[in-house]
Design goal:
The protein is an alpha+beta fold and 389 residues long. The protein folds into 2 domains: 198 residues, Four Helix Bundle (Hemerythrin (Met), subunit A), CATH 1.20.120; 165 residues, Reverse transcriptase/Diguanylate cyclase domain (Alpha-Beta Plaits, 2-Layer Sandwich). It is built from 11 helices and 7 strands. Strands 2-3-1-6-7 form a 5-stranded mixed sheet, sandwiched between helices. The chain has a two-stranded antiparallel sheet with strand order 4-5. Helix 11 links the parallel strand 6 and strand 7. Helix 2 runs antiparallel to helix 3. The longest helix has 69 residues. The radius of gyration is 49 Å and the shape is rod-shaped.
Length: 389
Amino acid sequence: MNSVQNKLILIFTICVLGTIGITGFIVVKYETALTSNEQLSEQSKELQNRAFKAQIYFKTQIQEWKNILLRGYDKPLYDKYFSSFLLYEKKTRQEVELLSVLAEEYPELKDNAVTFIAEHKKLSRLYREGLSVYNTTKYSPQIAADKQVRGIDREPIKLLERVLNVSTKMHREKSKSIRVALKEVKRNLATIYIATFILLAIFFWFSVKKGVTQPFNKELYRKHQFAMTDGLTGIANRHAYNEFLDKEIGRYKRNNSPFAFLLFDIDKFKYINDTYGHEVGDNVITGVANLLKDHIRDVDFIARYGGEEFVIVLPSTNINAAELVANKLRVLIECNEFNFNGKRVAITLSVGLAEIKINETKKELFERADAALYEAKNSGRNKCVKALH
């Protein structure tokens, strides 16, 4: 490879490696950030859950206090509601205490939680004083106890609502930060890939302009042609024949455009080989192939099917027109002088013709043409025979 090719390959390699490296760096960086954000989000979610539970427990505690006042005349009910009151008083404080421990990194939340705990302790003391009034007052104890504690729960309720609002806001902000980080990752990766695509497009454009890719294209074309070309005659081989005939049958099915199929065989070729040798036999095959190829249209297709057999496909041609072409080619070969080592070798062809039929396969078409060729051979050679429908 020349220096231009080496430089372009170097640029291509740098682009690819650079893309991989930058992509890896961004992925690692943002995976770390996302993991951190997810941990913070989980922590904020737990804080929010603690605040919700504390609110529920606190409301239940207040309700149980009211139940005591309303139904305290019944000793079993009094004991039941008082036990429930104590339970939810304890649960409320536990939840907020745990919340305050988790909220070390969030001063606003922690300060409100600590203040609530202090107010809650004060509230609990006042509730107990209210119960003392309730138990010692003979007339209308509920009214007396209610006056003792009326309004004392307002401040704790406000504090707890503030705790809940702050924790909910924190959780939303953390969740939003994760979404923002994900969008940033996608945006950065998209930018990198677009930039890489542009660089590679420039690279290939420059490669084509400088003709760097031509050797590769030529090599691929050469290999394809080699695979599709008969090594002796230089015309298409059986692989190319199969590919072309498949396309022609497909075109016929789509457009209902007929085509003719000619199968040629060199008469008494074994005799030529045995008499003059294989080298002369090869020269005969090559000469016949060149003459046939030079006297057909550009749209027609010729291939060596195998041995001394040749195939010609005539697109957009019916059987009658194909017979005229086949006889012209047959006479051409018969009249041509094949001289080898000063000796004239008479060469003739037998031809089987067939026109494609509806729903006919490639194999069936060949078999009909082959049967016609067999008849031409058996009826004297050097003639054209049309296949039966």
